[in-house]
């Protein structure tokens, strides 16, 4: 898929996020939107996966460590063909398989149940280590929030990944600089993030996580890096693509009302039309 098609797809993924959260009247749009380009590139370009065979043994694995941004993952999975896009409207509804956090037992394409912050990366490290021990060549990707990395378990997992030289592991930090209570510096600054991962023996790449070319180049570099895991620090805009949500901490975990939904979808429609004219 070329860059323009990826950008158009990411825009559709964003529409799915906004639609799901609006329909649920709850959820986490800000961090889902900031990571939409990353979800799109992983699922439509990078990973060895097959929606028709979601459990195939040699597939690449993805763990959403910041599990509350499930709307972003679900929208990417739906648009990739794991389940109907229409089902996004059932997010968090009673009886729906699309729960507020990813559930590997009920959602096709979800490799790990997650949501308790800090724990997803441990599961991803375990998967990457398992691949090495069994001489499998699948790769493991995990997405963390920059607020999430304030959790100590993240660094225990990173220590093991570095010490075991897990070059089949890619840790992506969605560095949108905002968490539920404010900026990450105000709450408990994890900066400098790059130096921390370097100290745990990671190859570190810093990019604009809303730029497809930079995402592509970083993931290619990660694939070519041998003998150590890779951490990609992806600088993003929280709420990316929706005018009134961008860089607004209040949209961390709040659903748009009908009027806000209309504005958000108009923003995304305009963005889609602009991409079609390129």
TrEMBL record:
Cofactor(s) this protein requires: thiamine diphosphate
Keyword terms of this UniProt record: Thiamine pyrophosphate
CDD domains, per the entry: TPP_TK (cd02012)
InterPro entries found in the cross-reference section: THDP-binding, Transketolase_N
A Pfam family it matches: Transketolase_N
UniProt domain Transketolase N-terminal: residue ranges: 9-263
Homology family: Belongs to the transketolase family.
PANTHER family: TRANSKETOLASE N-TERMINAL SECTION-RELATED
Name this protein carries in UniProt: Transketolase
